[in-house]
Amino acid sequence: MWAVHVEEEVYRLENVPFFVRGAACGDLVQAVPEKDGVLTVVSVKDEGNLTLRLIVRREGPLRGNLATALEMFESVGVSGEGAPQWGLVALDVPRGADLAAVKALIVSGEADGLWHWEEGAVNDEWRALPDADRN
């Protein structure tokens, strides 16, 4: 994770978490140093962004193209990062985004065989949206 120091033991996440649940870009984390100097996160303060992850199907219509998957989310104001070695895209859904439009795109993409998806960090508004079409 990339982060910037904000104050004593507090850091702001500066990229989208690929493998962490419950954290999003922009969140504030409290981290304390262990004996070896490695920081360990002890709490996360939600700052409003969501994290969603896509596993872009190599055998699907996108043929594993992460850049194309990312481009599909530009129209709904979502950016992200790709990790080609895992076929993974981490999406950063900013506070104020049209969550219904984002979820519709996510769910329809899965139904169309473009990707599988999971929630990394979401809020109650996201959870309240229907995803009945999800496979």
Automatic annotation (TrEMBL):
Pfam families: DUF4265 (PF14085). It comes from the Bacteria. InterPro entries: DUF4265. This is DUF4265 domain-containing protein. It comes from Intrasporangium calvum. The lineage of its organism: Bacteria, Bacillati, Actinomycetota, Actinomycetes, Micrococcales.
